[in-house]
Amino acid sequence: MLIGPERRNEIIAEMKNRNTPISGKSLAQKFQVSRQIIVQDIALIRAAGYDIISTNKGYLLNEPYEVSRIFKVAHTDEELEDELFSILDLGGKVVNVMINHKVYGHMEATLNINSRRKAETFLEDIRTGKSSPLKNITSNYHYHKVVADSEETLNLIEEMLKTKGFFVETVDTDRRE
After folding, report:
1. Nearest alpha-carbon partner for 61 in 25, 21, 24, 30
2. Phi/psi at 52 (nearest 5 deg)?
């Protein structure tokens, strides 16, 4: 059984991983505590700054619901636009680009590309020689953390990456090769 702070962190994680309310009864059963303990936990979580809505079906964390996945991909410079636009068009946001260099180790750059306009700005910077893609130092292999509104959207993005030949593998968020 989890102690208070650990249980509250797990309750927050549970709420972040769903976009439907979760009942106090369900939480009480999951954490093997009374419903009253859950009510107290919710009050403490709210006091810590989380916006939790109480509905007739349970508790709901009032923040945008997002899921993420790290994709290992490979493509040429010429295919960069197609990769970005395809992810965006399916509802994804490209959070970053990462590589694992055999000498330099893990390198990461924040992108936060969530629209074609932002992608165009990024691509223009690449085209005009402001910089070159990070993937170029690892034989085109790189990773993107992509966020979306659902696992279904991430699955569509993964299928599209496979269809276009960009997909190498999905990577656990705890490891990157």
Report:
1. 21
2. -110, 130
